Amino acid sequence: MTGAAIVWFRQDLRLADNPALCAAAATGAPIIAIYVLDEAAAGPWRCGAASRWWLHHSLKALKQALSALGVSLILRRGPSDLAIAGAIAETGATSIYWNRLYEPWAVRRDSEIKTRLRGFGLKVESFNASLLFEPTRMRNGSGNPYRVFTPFWKAALAAPAPERPLDAPANLTAAPDVASEKLEDWRLLPKTSSWASSLQNHWRFGEKAALERLAEFAGAAAAQYGASRDDLGRYGVSRLSPHLHFGEISPRQIWHEIKKLAGEEGLPFLRQVGWREFCHHLLFANPDLPDHPLDSSFERFPWREDPESLTAWKKGRTGYPLVDAAMRELWQTGYIHNRARMVAGSFLVKHLLIRWQEGERWFWDTLVDADLANNACGWQWVAGCGADAAPYFRVFNPVLQGEKFDPDGAYVRRHVQELARLDSKFIHRPWEAPQAALNAAGVRLGETYPRPIVDHAFARERALQAHAAMRSAT
After folding, report:
1. In the β-sheet with 31-37, what is the strand arrangement from edge to edge?
2. CA neighbours within 13 Å on the CB side: how many for 102?
3. Checking CA distances to 255, which of 25, 157, 184, 458 falls within 20 to 30 Å?
4. What CATH number does the domain located at 131-165+207-285 have?
5. Where do the H-state alpha helices sit in 218-355?
6. Which residues pair with 33 in a beta bridge?
7. pTM for the structure as a whole
8. How does pLDDT run across 99-112, given as a tens digit for each residue?
9. Domain ranges of the chain
C-alpha cells in the first residue's frame, strides 16, 4: 500500500469544500480516511454529552458518504499521535492531509505531529477549512489581533472575498481495508434514552442535511433575518450552527450561497457568521479565553456560591418564564435561540451573581452546537468581561425581554407547558396574574410553576453594587 494518502478527518465531516480531501484525491493515491477520537488532548474541554451525541450521528453519515465512493472511514480512539503513527505503520502511507483546528490544545498537538511526521520523511499538508480567514491574517492598524468586533467585521468585508467552495471529489481511489473500531463501541450516545429521543426529534445530521438546511434558509429567510432573528415565536434563524461546528458544511459554502440568493439583504446573517469568525480569532490570540476573563479586573468579582439557584437555572425553574423556556429548550433540543440565550445567560451572572464559567460548562455539556470559541466569547460578552462586551450595567429584564420578543407567549408556551393556557397579558409575569386567571389556566404558583427565585429590582441593584465593589478594589 506504499504511496497511500491518509486524510485525517476532524471538525470537517463532509466531502464538499474539504481542502484536505480534495488535495489528497488530486494526487491519485489510494485514500485512507481516518477519524481519531482523542478525548485526552482537549483536557476539560472534551466533547460534552450533546456534542458526543451529534458526533455519533455525523460520523455515521460521513461513513455512508465515503462508502458511496468506495472508501471506508477508519475509526481509532486514543492519542492522535499514536493513532496516526499506527495507521502509517499499518498502511505504508507516505503522505497525510488534514484541515486545521484553531483551539489552543489542537494547535499545539497538531504542530508537534506535523514536525514529527515530516522528520520521518512524510509529506504533511494542512489547510484552512473551518474559517473564512486565517487568524494570523486579520490584524488591526497596530498589527495586533482585533479586540472589538465592528472594526474586525469592517476589515472582513473590505478584504478579498473568501475563496469559492471546492466541489466534492467525483471519485476516489480506495486503499485496501484497514482495521477499524466500531462506532457503537465508543458509546457516544447518552445513557438517558429519553433525552436522546427528545434531541432526535429536532435534528437531521450529516452533510446532506446541512446543505438542505442551507438551501431552505439562504433565500427569503436569510433576506428577512435582520427583521425576524429576535422573534422568539417565529424562529427566523438558520439553525446551521451545529452543522457548521462539526464541519458538515463550511463557512465558505454559507457565505457564497447567502450572497448569491439573498444579496445585500443577507448581510445581517453574514454578520453572525462574522461574529463566529471573530470569536475563533479571539481564542487563537487568547488561549486562556475559556477559563479567564479578558478584562482581568473580573478576576476580583465577588461571585456568589449558590448551588440551589444554579440547579434551578439549569432545570428551567427560576420562576421567570422566558429564562425557564430558554433552559428547557436547551434540554429538550440541545439548542437555544440566541435572544433567549443572552437573557438566560444574563440572568445567571447578573441576577444570581453566579460566575459565568458555570454557565459556560453547562452549555458545553448540553448544546449540540457547543463551540469552544463561541461559548467562551458569548459568556464573557454577557458577563461584561470579554471583548466588545455588553456593559455590566446592562442587566436584561427577563419580563420586558419576553414581552418585546415573545409578545403572545408562543415561545414560552412551547417550552413551559404548565403556563400554556395562561393569558398572554400575564405569560411573562404570572405572579401578577389574578387568582381567577391562574385558576383558569391551571397554574398554582409555588406548586405547578415556581415563584421567582429572586426579585428583578433587587437583583439588578445587587449586581451593580458588586460591579462597583470590584472596580474600587485594589
Report:
1. 73-77, 31-37, 5-9, 95-99, 123-127
2. 27
3. 25
4. 1.25.40.80
5. 220-223, 225-228, 241-245, 251-262, 267-285, 307-315, 321-333, 338-346
6. 7, 73
7. 0.96
8. 999 999 999 999 99
9. 5-129, 131-165+207-285, 296-472
